[in-house]
Write a structure and sequence with these properties.
It is a single chain. This protein is an alpha/beta fold. The chain folds into two domains: 130 residues, Trna Endonuclease, Chain: A, domain 1 (3-Layer(aba) Sandwich), CATH 3.40.1350; 83 residues. The protein is 51% helix and 13% strand. The chain is built from ten helices and seven strands. The strands form two sheets. The chain has a five-stranded mixed sheet. Strand 4 and strand 5 form a beta hairpin.
Length: 227
């Protein structure tokens, strides 16, 4: 599963999601822009950065790790230090390390790494210990779920998307993102098989979805003509 790409799209779509994961009020998301920044030296790239609109708010560095990696924290610390030296931001910062479950976190931290965790400078999040809430949280629940749990989660997400999202283009984007997660999770299946299994095709055939899709195409064509 290409989790870094998928999580980038999820954070881009649901701009309050990081603060939900942190257990913070979603109002704190106001004024933040989610982006991905490459730092010099070995071309390190953060999975994502939440950049604030003022010096009073902290920068959030986000890293998603779905495989065991003993050097994870050293690499994260290195990326952050290179970024700080390169961009010299005036804001404070916090790093968010996201793991699917606690067992994939580094087992034994050095004293320095543990100090960064204890101080709150690095915050660890274990997705299987997070309760689902918003649609964005539901997508994360789907990513870390067992395959036999996926149909019920998808059914719930599809229903919530239809009833809670009024903007047609936003609804289309969430459905496409849901399909991307499923394609990654069930890599042995084709797109058509996944659409049939999870009834994604039912929504994609609706007039509202097709109109939103067409509007997106027309906007894209207009942008190309204006270049």
């Amino acid at each position: 599963m290409h989790t870094d790409t998928i999580f980038y799209q999820i954070f881009l779509t649901f701009h309050t999601l990081l603060f939900e994961l942190l257990g913070e009020p979603i109002e704190k998301a106001e004024g933040y822009q989610f982006t991905s920044v490459e730092v010099k030296e070995k071309a390190f790239r953060f999975d994502g950065i939440f950049m604030p609109d003022s010096e009073e708010k902290p920068i959030y560095f986000v890293e998603v790790q779905f495989q065991p990696k003993p050097e994870f924290y050293w690499e994260l610390i290195t990326e952050i230090n290179i970024y700080l030296n390169q961009y010299k931001p005036k804001q404070d910062w916090q790093a968010i390390a996201i793991f699917p479950q606690r067992s994939l976190d580094v087992e034994n931290l050095t004293n320095y790494q543990q100090e960064l965790v204890n101080s709150g400078r690095i915050k660890q999040i274990y997705l299987d210990e997070i309760s689902s809430g918003s649609i964005g949280m539901g997508l994360i629940e789907l990513i870390v779920s067992q395959e036999n749990q996926a149909p019920e989660i998808v059914k719930n997400l599809m229903q919530r998307t239809k009833t809670e999202i009024n903007n047609d283009s936003e609804r289309e984007g969430i459905i496409d993102l849901l399909e991307t997660v499923l394609l990654s999770k069930f890599s042995q299946l084709s797109r058509k098989e996944i659409e049939a299994m999870f009834l994604v095709s039912d929504i994609k055939q609706t007039k509202v979805y097709q109109e939103a899709k067409q509007e997106g195409r027309e906007e894209g064509e207009a942008k190309l003509l204006l270049r």
